Amino acid sequence: MSRQDGRLRAGPSTASLRPLGLPRGLTVRCDAAGQPLAVARTDARGRPGPELDVERVEEVWRLAEAWWREASQARTYYRVILEGGRPLTLFRDDAAGAWFEQSYTSPGRSGAAP
Amino acid sequence: MSTVRLDVPSRSVACLAIPSLAFQCELAGRPGLQGAPVALSDEARGRVADANREAAAHGVRAGMTLRDAVGLCPTLHVLEPRPAHVARYADALVEVMAAVSPLVEAAEHGIVFADLRGTEGLYPAIQDVQRAVFAGVPAALAPRLGIAGHRLTALVAATRAGPGATVHVTTEDAAAFLAPEPVSCLPLSVEAVERLRLLGIDTCGQFAALPRHAVEAQFGFEGGAAWLAACGEDPRPLYPRPWERERVVEQVQAEPPLVSRESVLHALEQMLGRALRHPRARHRFVRQVRLRGETERGGLWEREQVLREPVGDRARLWTLLRSLVEYATFPGPLSLVTLELSGLTRESGRQRSLLDVEQTRRREQLDEMVRHLKVRFGASPIARVVDVEPWHRLPERRYALLEYDP
Prior knowledge:
Chain A is mainly β. Chain A has strands at about 10, 15-20, 25-30, 35-40, 50-65, 75-80, 85-95, 100. In chain A, β3 and β4 form a beta hairpin. By secondary structure, chain B is of the alpha+beta class. Among the domains of chain B are: about 20-85, MutS, DNA mismatch repair protein, domain I; about 175-230, 5' to 3' exonuclease, C-terminal subdomain (DNA polymerase, domain 1), CATH 1.10.150.20; about 245-350, 2-Layer Sandwich (Dna Ligase, domain 1), CATH 3.30.1490.100; about 355-405, no CATH class. Chain B has helices at about 20-30, 55, 65-70, 85-100, 125-135, 150-160, 175-180, 190-200, 205-210, 210-230, 260-275, 315-325, 355-375; strands spanning about 15, 40, 50, 75-80, 105-110, 110-115, 145-150, 165-170, 245-260, 285-295, 300-310, 335-340, 385, 400-405. Chain B is globular. Chains A and B meet through β1 and β2 of A and β9, α11, β13 and β14 of B. β2 (about 15-20) of chain A pairs antiparallel with β14 (about 400-405) of chain B.
């Protein structure tokens, strides 16, 4: 089990808290500046789906979490509009360079679980 | 080493002692500090809690501020205390003694008693006991073992023994052995010890030379017990820890550590369910609960509650545990939470509520259904969404599914 998923490790055969809203892997083509140009979602078996162009990037923000810990997290989030007008929130894990899809609301604003 | 058979009464109690356990634990993990001046700070990280001989040679003493200590000894290595680390070592020492005798009392951190009566067949000689005990304790902790017929004599013998050595005191020699010890080692209150000092009675030998009736006239029952102890016949029994089968222990390791009180409560709720489902606890009532939380940096939070009456009802136990956590001040985010239910009674009758019959019936139906699902599929597919850290910036840390665990 990875350090990032926030899961509790309990007794040998007992599952515990299962985090909701975990990021899902995504294949992303970027420009020279690292901005996403096209994305391809992966299916349940990990195979990439059709590539969709990014029409525009609406918002970019960065999160650095627990930077004082060994397992710190640094992410750059992008809220983009895909071809056809569909919005998508994705982020790049700045340490690993991998891309993920994850819906994002500001903490405390949503008021409900995803 | 020659094997000598010994009389049974003089080897009734064994005492394993590790002076300055917290300091020894820290030093044991850092062999590179051997020969260097080292001090252990207190939990507030403001004062010296303990110092080794090299630091003491520079004038570093327990109680002085760290600033003063570093001023006296610029090369001083200051170690931060890790109470959880020490507690783990202390538990390990209890287990070591439990391997020698089933009746073990953990008196305080670094001092463990074992009742050796009945173990003569397993350990015919004192050396056999010593070998069995020291085999489980790292030599770096400098363990000492005292063996005697009674509690106080065994304790003093252990503190007088050198590192890695055993002192055995026979019942006949006990009074003479204790005679030079200060009266403060006796089971007396601070006021009583102060009164004895004012009367010019400083040692156990002087105290034991007084007539027992005179001591009891002055200090009552406590004085009488202390007089017997000074004579090498300590009447205080050992208070062994509950047997393993009388306890249920559940643990949850959290990675990343639990920051919020809510997440600790969620973890605890699940642990309580698991503990009550344990075959040892099923249909039995609980007399005592113990909660322990440890931080990544070795901080420790611990609460123990003896219940006024045995409780077998999950809701009532949960109310109690909840109140313990709600008023707690944790030393930091918890990476390990332990719940221990002990003092389990025999099976007892349960009185049903007359008021919330419908709600109870539904709950029991649900519980029964989930139990069936778990038997059939190995896990319950029913879960509920709980807040973990709703304010967290990473979305996956805000909410979680908690398995419904009847």
